[in-house]
Each structure stands twice: as structure tokens, then as C-alpha cells.
Amino acid sequence: MTGIISDNLGRSSGLLKAAGGGGKILQVVAGPEIGVSTTTTSNSWAAMNLEVDITPSATSSKIFVAAMFMSRAQDGSGSHNNARFTLYRDSTNLGDANGGLHANVGNGRVMECTVIYLDSPSTTSSVKYEIYARCFSSRAIIIGDGDGSVLPHQVIYAFEVDGS
């Protein structure tokens, strides 16, 4: 049993009630699952078509974003291709301007990637969160790349968390 006991009147029954204040999940929005691959060869941040829109109910809300996808930093010649991934809120890069939030460094290996971020957008207007990628070579970065003809689904979720 977990919870905050000090201010919980229902503790004698063994039932713990939710404490007041923030931290509760207010809504969950799933972006469309994408079953096709997206490729970029750009050395600037490029949108990878993995996105979700959410409209926070309060300016104090936090938005927890989780994106899961498979990626391959295509090698072509046996040398490494350093792929970087980041998360944008509308036109704002939420990661490091150069390195992003996640890296895939490898000789063409398909790798699982997870990008997570807790944001404070301070708005009640709709916001879009989207995965972006960039190359550090002239080769390609592919998300949604799978094993042969099987393309894995890519997913992105936005959770509104009560920030009060």
C-alpha cells in the first residue's frame, strides 16, 4: 500500500485516497501509429512525421511526452553514422541544439529508441510535439526501419499532468 498517510482520513479502512495537489494524469493523447518508415539525410534537424497534438487544460499543467520507435543510422560503407533525435514543441527544440535528446551510433544496426521529456508549455492552446532527427554524415537516418519487410509501428504519447 502506498500513498500519503498523514492527511488521509480513509486510512483505517486500508483505502488510501489521492492526496491533493498536482501529479495526477488529466488526459492521455496518442499520436497516430505510423507503420511506414521515414528517412532523412539532413545535417539540420528534420521532422520525422511522428507527432502528437494535445491541448492542456491549465497553464500550470506539465506535459509528459514518450515516443518509441526503431531507427537505423544507415552506414553504406562500414563507417559510423551518428544519428541524433530530439523533440520539438511546435517550433521549439526541447533538446540540446546540437545533440538533441537521444543518439544512435552504429554501423547500420536497427536500434530501439525512446525519447521522453517532461515539458511545461504554460498554455491552454493546442501544442504539437514531434520527433526530429539529424545526421552527422552524408548517409541516411531511417525511423520505422525493421527487419526485412516487417516495419514496426512507431508511437508517441502525450500525458497531461496536473501541475497545481
Spatial gap, N to C terminus: 24 Å
Spans of at least 5 consecutive residues whose pLDDT stays below 50 are: 1-11
Number of helix segments? 0
Strand content: over 45%
For the record, the count of structural domains works out to 1
CATH architecture: Sandwich
The CATH C-level class name: Mainly Beta
**Number of separate strands:** 11
Q: What composes the largest sheet?
A: 6 strands, antiparallel
CATH topology name, in short, is Jelly Rolls
Shape: elongated
- Average pLDDT level: 80
Q: Helix-strand pattern, N to C?
A: EEEEEEEEEEE
Helix content: under 10%
CA gyration radius, whole angstroms: 19 Å
**Helix- and strand-based class?**
mainly beta
Annotate the secondary structure layout.
Elements (H helix, E strand, L loop, with lengths): L24 E6 L7 E3 L5 E9 L7 E12 L7 E9 L2 E2 L8 E5 L3 E10 L7 E9 L5 E3 L11 E7 L3
Antiparallel strand pairs: 1-11, 2-10, 3-9, 4-8, 4-10, 4-11, 5-6, 5-7, 5-9
Describe this structure as you would to a colleague:
With 164 residues, the protein is an all-beta fold. The protein has one domain (24-161): Jelly Rolls, CATH 2.60.120. The chain contains no helices and eleven strands. The chain has strands at residues 25-30, 38-40, 46-54, 62-73, 81-89, 92-93, 102-106, 110-119, 127-135, 141-143, 155-161. The strands form two sheets. Strands 1, 2, 4, 8, 10 and 11 form a six-stranded antiparallel sheet that branches.
